Amino acid sequence: MKPIQRANKVLFFVGMCFPLPALIVMSWLVHQTTGQFRDSFFQVGHTYKVLNLVQQTQFHLLDAETERRGYLLTGGNDYLNSYGRAMAAVRNDIDQLKSLVRARAGQQTNILALQNLITERLGINPDTIAGSKVNVHEALAIALTDEGKNTMEKIGRVLFQMGQEEEYSLNINQQRAEADSISSQITSVVLIGTVVMVLMFIIIILRRLEKLQQVVTICAWTGQVKYEGQWIRLDEYLQRQFGLSVSHGLSKEAAEKMIAEMKGFNRPGGERPPG
């Protein structure tokens, strides 16, 4: 097999086989980058949800403490009902927080501390209620107000700690999401470049095959080749069509014939040998 034929077959084989692994690699890269970006985006959204829930819990706790103080001072059922609704909302918030941060030991510790404070400081003590109904005066109002303020400060510190941990987590997740986004963009550019290179490679192969499949017209008398409407020598055709450099030599048959003719011319009288 001639070198040019072997090279063309190898080129054709590579051109046909290269797109398949390229597509497999591109699909895998797209899957990986998409999964990473989706996970990072989910983590950012999850952290924002926790932060909003922490703020909501703080508002509900403030409502519960206010309604508790109003009930202890007045004994009104309206305050008691509002207190019950606020505490139910607080319990619902805490259950959601537990579910959202169940994999994080630090936040679980904060939630436990928050529950202890709520049980200890925001519960309604029957003895306090009885005492307040008998003797409600300005000193009791001041004491309850100071107590509520102290309670909310302690609860606020716990909620602030939870918020700080979520802010730190949010910062990390945002940086990771940005890095994944940049990585996804770079991967997309690389994939596009790879596809373009594959297409160019295939086009080159097809053009070379098209050249090989052309019918070449050769003069039966002179051996010249018809190329683009002109009759040119074979070596010039190979140079133009395939970029091949051609060297000239002498075959064994031609050399023997040339030697015989030279010997014939060198005979006395210049006669050629018979035959």
Fill in the keyword field for this structure.
3 strands, three-stranded antiparallel sheet, 275 residues, mainly alpha, 2 domains
Query: How large, in whole angstroms, is the Cα Rg?
Result: 46 Å
Number of structural domains:
2
Largest sheet: 3 strands, antiparallel
The shape is rod-shaped
Query: What is the H-and-E element order?
Result: HHHHHHEEEHH
Structural category:
mainly alpha
Q: How many separate helices? A: 8
Please report which band the strand proportion falls in: under 5%, 5-15%, 15-25%, 25-35%, 35-45% or over 45%: under 5%
Q: What gap, in angstroms, lies between the N and C termini?
A: 38 Å
**Helicity range:** over 70%
Q: What is the β-strand count? A: 3
Poorly predicted spans: 130-137
Give the strand order, joined by hyphens, for the main sheet. 1-2-3
Q: Mean pLDDT, nearest integer?
A: 75
Polypeptide structure, described:
The protein has about 280 residues and is mainly α. The chain folds into 2 domains: about 5-210; about 215-275, no CATH class. The protein has helices at about 5-15, 20-75, 75-100, 105-120, 125-135, 140-210, 235-240, 250-265; strands at about 215-220, 225, 230. It has a 3-stranded antiparallel beta sheet. Helix 4 packs antiparallel against helix 6 (about 140-210). The longest helix is centred in the middle third of the chain and has 75 residues, at about 140-210.
